[in-house]
Amino acid sequence: MQRPDGAGLLSESMWKYLMNNGSSQMLIAALAAMGEAIPPDAQEFIEACLNHPDPDIRAMACEKAIKSGRPTHFAYVLNLITDPDPLVAETAFCVVRDMPVNELSIILDYALGSPDE
What we know:
The protein is mostly helical. Helix content is 66%, strand content 0%. It is built from seven helices and no strands.
């Protein structure tokens, strides 16, 4: 979902279309195709996936949310550690546990200092 120069292949409107109209299989495919770098236009898409009713999508979105580096995404993933679905809860726990300590410290510091709920 990204070009080698880091720019996304999908526009913001395409991400919104996927969020609102994509099947579970389409959302999972989009998450899988993102790779390591999260396109800037996909931030809302990731948030929607973290709140999706399908546990497979929530679980897959955990890793992408952490890679985005956004404190709000980090907070969503922390919340998913208590998800009723065991796959989602375990995935969320593992992605937080496996974060490099320096990254975890920075994002936790930023999240704690943020006025956002």
